[in-house]
Structure formats: structure tokens, C-alpha cells
Amino acid sequence: MATKLARICLARPFLRTLSTAPPSHLTLLGQQYPTDSITNISPTIISKLPLRLHTQPFHPLNTLRTLIESHFPDYAHLSSFSPLVTPYKNFDELSFPTDHPGRSVADSYYVNKDLMLRTHTSAHEIDVFRSGKTKWLLTADVYRRDEIDGSHYPVFHQMEGARIFSSDASGMKEVEEDNARLSQHLSQSNILIEDILHITPTNPAQPSHDPRHSELVAVNLKLSLNSLLLHLFAGVAGASKEEPLRVRWIEAYFPFTSPSYEVEVFFRGKWLEILGCGVVGQATLDRADVPHKMGWAFGLGLERISMILNSIPDIRLFWSTDPRFLSQFSNTDRKISTFKPYSKYPSCFKDVSFWLPLGEDNKKIHENDLCDLVRDVAGDLVEDVKMIDSFRHPKNNRTSLCYRINYRSMDKSLSNEETNALHSGVVSRLQDQFRVEIR
Ligand code: DAH
């Protein structure tokens, strides 16, 4: 994604060139599932399914989860939903259009055409609302095919949160009282929140909602999340009265909310998107059999927030089992500690140039296919992958691509032999899997 949460909304071309057939069945979390022509879940991804970092004691993502949960003590705290969902749950039930790019096999992991890895925690919204819960938080691992760099990883963690009220006068009175309470609580501090209008012609109330009710609910959403952001970020190192931490609200679009917003935090010279939210689409609540309710929901990216709060410089570190990483968080449940990098080991850049196959097979390799292949060979020893050259031969019309792969371990120096072995593994898989001609 431009940023993690928004990427799902970007259009991407998709062409697939896997020439090796997947096995007829995959074993996922102890159960067997048939594969089909769209299966694209890789061994590296399968190995992540049981890990559930957000529930591992003392892991920074677990600490962050419990910290946020402690801010919403009277909400239900859920964290054991399976990552395997139907495309219907992930997309259709939430009103995603049938041609939404997030559905493509280039962007999402499919076990088969009827089963996928959830791309966001919103996939469970309807089930949780249907179970009768009116205030809840749900944390889970989510999966998106993506490029490789220091802030993107194909598995990350989101927390979904929601609160719904009766849409009659008594429910709206509850919202008003809560708004008054929250406004009072939000006092001045070293955090600067840039706000926008709650409802505008481009970010409207839903037709079935009384606009005054929609406004009250949107204000409740913003106050509740600003209060969380203060709780999380007010003590962040570097933020001071002179240079406050900057947070901004911007208008957004999600198929299942209106009005919708995103929240970004200014960090190391860039605005980083950390959450998406909005007034829950009435269709969602109708499908969940709670048509007389209205309310708000949000989905936030735990890695993004933890990288800011704990000063974690590379997203791969969350998967590290190195005691030098884990021990830094070992006695700090519910308390954020600042990560002290133990060392930065040298990078080793290797380029690979190849001609795309001609004729029948002359399809463009999707960059996400290439990244999955590199991760399958090199795991977390690859830091980033960038295309550095692309050209079409004027005479024979063949396309040549050159990728630069940066191999770097977070735990040790890689020897030349190790890097060469990894790189030749990548090169031979490229030849086998994509039938490219190495230059
Ligand atoms: N699921 C969205 C994403 O991953 C984030 C989101 C947006 C969650 C709006 C919500 C919401 O609950 O109301 O991009």
C-alpha cells in the first residue's frame, strides 16, 4: 500500500506466471485444504500461521495490544479468530465491489477460490456484531502480498475496534453524554492533533442516517480515538512542548463506512498512516441482525504503532527470535520500552537481470510474485528488493528486467558464501518458476 492500510484500495495489474503446480492439498493449522488454480499461499507464509505474535508473552505487539485493551477496559477483548476466511467474509459481506483490486491473487493470499487469508480484521466485524457485542476490540494477524522493504511484511497485525449504540433517542443520549465526558478528559499535552470537518459533501452521512446522529457518532469516534492516541503517544521520546508529536485526521474512503477517516502520525519526516475508521455502514449492521444500532469502527496497524513507540527500525525484527531483541521487552508487559539496536550488520547487494519468456509465457511477472519467491528462498535475510532497470529490446521486443536484492541479517554478518548460496537459490527458482532467461 502506499501505506499498509490503504494499499488495498490501489489498482494493480495482475498476471501470474507460476509454472510449477502446487500440491493437491495444503496443511494449514493442522487441517488439510484442497488447492486449485489460484492457490498462491507460499511455505514462508504457511510457517507464520501458528505464530500469533500478538499473544506471545512480552512480545512488543502483545504489549501494545494489552496497552490498548487497558485503555478500553469495558470492551470485549478478542484475539483468537482463525486467519482462514472466505472471500465472501473478507470482501462481499463488507460491500467491496466485485472488481476491487484487493481481491486479486496478486494482492491477497488464496488457499483456493473459496478460502483465503484475511487481509484485514474487518473480516470479522459482522460475526462479532451478530454475537451481540456492542463494544469490542479484536486483534489478529492479517496477510497481504507486498513488496519487500523495511516497513512492509506480508504478515502484520491489526486491531479492530467498534462501539455501537441504539439508534433511538436513548442511544443518542448515551453518545452525547460520552462525548461530554471525553471532551473534558482530552486536555492539552505534547501532542498536536490536526482535525477536519466530521461530515462533508465528499465524506457524507449515510442516506438512512439522521445527519445529526451521524455527526454525534463521528464525534464519539474521533474523541475515543484521540483519547487512545494521547494515551499511546503522549509520552513518546522526542515529543516536547516545542516540538509536539503531530497527528492528523484525513478524509478517506472504505466500502463499509461513511463518513470515513484515516489517522496519520508524523514520524521521522514522513506522515505514516496508522489507522482507518468510520461510521459503520448500515448494511453491515443489517447483515449482522442488529439493524436498530448505529456506531463506529476502526482498524489499526500494530506494527506501525510499535515501530514508532518502541523505535523499532525494521519490520522484520518483530519476527526475530534473537534474545538480543526479545530480552529488551521481557519484563515490560503493559509498558513500552525503547529498542536499542544491537548492531547493524553489513548489506550485501546482488543484482539479477533476466529476459522475460517469449511467446505463450511472455507475461509480466508481478513484483509480488517475485517477492514471495525471494522470501521463500532467503526468509528474513532479505531486507529489500528493488527493480533498478527495465527495457524492451527494439528488435526482438523482449523485455529485460534487473532487480537489486539487499541481503542483510539482523542478527549476524552474512558470509560471502552464504549470500552467494542464497542468491543462486533465488536465480535458479526464477528460472524454474517463471521460465526467465538469466542474462
Ligand atoms: N480494514 C481497513 C483496512 O485494513 C481499516 C478500517 C477502516 C477498519 C475503516 C475499520 C473501519 O473498522 O471502520 O484498510
TrEMBL record:
Q: Which residues form the FDX-ACB domain?
A: 343-439
Known catalytic reactions: tRNA(Phe) + L-phenylalanine + ATP = L-phenylalanyl-tRNA(Phe) + AMP + diphosphate + H(+)
The record's section on SMART domains has: FDX-ACB
Could you provide one GO biological process annotation from this protein's UniProt record? phenylalanyl-tRNA aminoacylation
Q: Which SUPFAM superfamilies match?
A: Anticodon-binding domain of PheRS (SSF54991), Class II aaRS and biotin synthetases (SSF55681)
Enzyme class label: ligase
InterPro entries, alphabetically? aa-tRNA-synth_II, aa-tRNA-synth_II/BPL/LPL, Fdx_antiC-bd, Fdx_antiC-bd_sf, Phe-tRNA-synth_IIc_mito, Phenylalanyl-tRNA_Synthase
Protein name listed in UniProt: Phenylalanine--tRNA ligase, mitochondrial
